[in-house]
From TrEMBL:
Gene Ontology BP terms: formaldehyde catabolic process
Keywords in alphabetical order: Metal-binding, NAD, Oxidoreductase, Zinc
EC number annotated for this UniProt entry: 1.1.1.284
Source species, domain of life: Eukaryota
Organism: Tuber borchii (White truffle)
Protein name: S-(hydroxymethyl)glutathione dehydrogenase
One Gene Ontology MF term: S-nitrosoglutathione reductase (NADH) activity
The protein's required cofactors: Zn(2+)
Catalytic activity entry: S-nitrosoglutathione + NADH + H(+) = S-(hydroxysulfenamide)glutathione + NAD(+); a secondary alcohol + NAD(+) = a ketone + NADH + H(+); S-(hydroxymethyl)glutathione + NADP(+) = S-formylglutathione + NADPH + H(+); S-(hydroxymethyl)glutathione + NAD(+) = S-formylglutathione + NADH + H(+)
Keyword Iron-sulfur: no
Pfam name, any one: ADH_N
Top class in the EC scheme: oxidoreductase
Amino acid sequence: TEGKTITCKAAVAWEPGEPLSIEKIEVAPPRAHEVRIRIHYTGVCHTDAYTLSGKDPEGAFPIVLGHEGAGIVESIGEGVTSVRLGDHVVALYTPECRECKFCKSGKTNLCGKIRATQGKGVMPDGTSRFRAKGKDLLHFMGTSTFSQYTVVADISVVAITYDVSMEKTCLLGCGITTGYGAAVVTAGVEKGSTVAVFGAGCVGLSVIQGAVKCGASQIIVVDVNDKKEEWSKKFGATHFVNPYKIGDQTIQEKLIEMTDGGLDYTFDCTGNVQVMRAALEACHKGWGQSIVIGVAAAGQEISTRPFQLVTGRVWKGCAFGGIKGRTQLPDLVKDYMEGKLKVDEFITHREPLDQINKAFDQMKAGDCIR
Ligand code: NAD
Ligand code: AHE
Ligand code: ZN
C-alpha cells in the first residue's frame, strides 16, 4: 500500500452536535515527515465529546475526531527517522520536536512546531490527508484516531514495545498519562504531602496513582458520584467526600478542616470552573498548589479573590500531564510492564468502530471509566 491512497472506514463528524457517521474515507499517503498508521485501538475521551458538541473554539467540521489511539506504522514519508514500518506506536496530541523554543526550554511539554496547523485541523503543510464524499475532512489534535488509518506528523508519534497490547497502550495517549503526569511531573508531589483530587474519572484516578507513587500521606477524592468511592480507594485514595453530603459547609471549608489548614496539592479533573475555584481555595496558605486539568466549556472563566494568591497559593495547569511523549511515554509503558502503573483496570467498556456513538453514550453515563 505504500505510496497509495487507502480506502477504509472512519467515524466522521459532519456537523456539531450530530452523531458520528461511519463512512468509507480515502486516506492519502504520508508526505515528507509524516507517518501513516493503521489504528488498532482508540479510547474515547470527554474532549472528543466537547469538540463534537460545537463548544470548542478550535472545533471545525467535517472532522475525524479521536486522540487516544495506538496502532502500527503502515508507511512513512520522506525524511522520517523517528519510527519504522511495523512499529507499534501511540499517537501524540502533544508533539515533541526537540527543536522549538518550547521543547528546548526544559520548562514545558508543549511543543510549538506544528501547533498552529494542528489547531486548524490540517497537516503541517496546510492540507488534509482525509477525503469522503468528495470533500476534505479535517484532522483533530494532530491525531484523528477514529479511523482505521490516519496520518500524523513524525513528531506526533512514539514507538512502543511490541510486548504490550495496543488495547492498553492507547490509553497512555491521553487520560492516564494526563493524570499521572500532572501529579508526578507538573505538581511534583513530595513524599508525605496531602493531596485532593476533584473528579475521579480516568484522569482523577490517574492523579491518585501518581500521588501514591510520590508517597503522598493523604489523598482525598471529591466526587459527586458515590460510586467513585470504591474506584478511588482501589487506586490508593485514603478518603472520599461527596460535596453534596457535607451539610452547610462548602467543600473548601470541609477540606481545610480535614487537613489542618488545607492541602499541599489539589487537582481539578472535572472541567467545572466552580470546582476549579474550590480546588484553589482548598490549598494550604503559603504554599498550596492547585493544578487545573479539566477542559472547561468555551466562554467559561475562573475567578477567586486575588488574596488567595497573595497569601501564597499557586494556580497552574497542564496539558498531557506535562509529559514529553516521545521521551517519556516508553518509561510509562515500562512502569506498566513492571506492575507499577495500572492500565487494565481503566477499561470498563469495549465497542467496535461502527458502535462508536454507543461508546460516546456510555462515556457520558457515569459508570464508565474508559
Ligand atoms: P470523567 O467524566 O470520566 O470524570 C469526571 C468526574 O468528575 C466524574 O467522576 C464526575 O462524577 C466528577 N464530577 C463532576 N462534577 C463534579 C463536581 N462538581 N465535583 C466533584 N466531582 C465532579 O472525565 P475524565 O475523562 O476523567 O476527564 C476529566 C476532565 O479532564 C475533562 O474535562 C477532560 O476533557 C479533561 N482532560 C484534560 C486533559 C489535559 O491534558 N488537560 C486531558 C484529558 C482530559
Ligand atoms: N481546543 C480547546 C482546548 C482543549 C484543550 O485544552 N486541550 C488539551 C488537551 S485535552 C485532552 O483530552 C490540550 O492539550 N491543550 C493544549 C493545546 O495546546 O491544545 C480550546 O479551548 O481552544
Ligand atoms: Zn483526552
